[in-house]
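During the reporting period the student researcher (J.K.) took over the structure-prediction task from the postdoctoral fellow and processed the backlog of single-chain submissions. One of the processed entries is reproduced below for the supervisory committee.
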Amino acid sequence: MDRPVPLWVVLLLGLLGLLFLVPFGALVRSDALESGRTGVIGALSRAAGEVAAFPATVRTVFVELRQRLSPGGGFEALQFTRDERLSLEGFQPMAVAPGLAIHPPRMRADPAGLPRGWRLLIGVFEIDGQPESAALLVSPDLMIVKKWSLDEVPVGGKEPRPANRKFVHGTDMDREGAIYYTFHNAISLTKKDSCEKRVWVTPGASHHAVTLDEAGATLWTFDDDDLRQVATADGRVLQTITLPEVIAANPDIDLLEIRTRQPRTPPPGRQSNEPLIGPFLFDPFHLNDVDPLPPALAPAFPQFEVGDLLVSMRELNLVFILDPATKRIRWWRVGAWQRQHDPDWLPDGRIAVFDNRMRRGTSRIVAIDPRTYAVSTLVDGAKTRFFTAFRGMQQVLPTGGVLVASANQGRVFETDEKGRIVLDIINSVSSDAGATWFMSQAIWFPADALNPAAWACPPARPR
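J.K. obtained the following structure tokens:
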């Protein structure tokens, strides 16, 4: 026979639970804010942090399991509901060369308004009936003529994340058709030749950006919070610049320590005249682009040197120019954009920036004069139905138009010098006209810059 639990027992247990939650919460907060504590308190706070994180860990496991068991292997995570502002009226499937089993994105174009050239689209595409990360080469006549499948292999004792749980985020291609790429949450930087053969793999947490120098001999990318220069011939790391080095080299510019927790009072046992240094907050920098000043554009920027690095940090709303030899910051601007990406050097001495405007509802492309700080709008998101809160790339074209990859819209579009859209590509999901696949980047090449006919490759094996 069950006996009822006395009310006083229930109240006592509740009171004891509340008494436990107070020190437990203090320890969790201590673990979050004062990482690096030692001794018994440090051990207890770290243990409390692990316990507090347990529900989130369990949720992550179930999400991953659900993705792996879902139709299509969970690639749905790289789909977006098509922006209601974007209609498919007047769009047609892109032409695809024979032999390529690609479900084509849909396109609307004004060929007369386009600069003639090749375009590289990077993202998730349906190939042989399955979604995969890839790069597609579009001819000057707007036909998809070639593809590179983009993947990772185990390296440095690490296994790559499943393909359905990451997206290509950082790509460049040279004139010989070799493609260099990395992923969000990557374990490596990879080079594939024009025939999709893997040439080299460099271990590291590369992300966001892969930028070839003008000669194509080196490229710049990231390794977590380090800037990294890599030789394109063999993947050797030539130079690494750490952010602590940059902070130390710029003691008079307090740009990179904004997201640190500065204690108000000295901890017990510390002299009051000792510096108070707190831990960085979560994701303090979020590096997302690095671009060396090429010799051809150096005359437009006499205040800088060839090879100076144009760097973007999303979390600080910061774009700055860094001397890679001395680690000195030559120029910076904060807050002329919100959660920006992809600053580029322009031939007229300005810098173009992809201004996501994360909480504003429309994105834009702007240009800033580093001498006067004057900002002008090159692409107005309100007029072009353009918004991606995260990610995105842009390229200002010789005609004055702009090529834009609006990643979260699954969209690539191009404007002419008057801001009119002359090319619009939407990467529709074949089974759902209301959804789009992610597209992270697009690159334009002059018509005479590439010659795919010279990239002789053996016949592809059946998949």
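The committee noted the following: The chain has four helices and 31 strands.
J.K. will present the remaining backlog at the next meeting.
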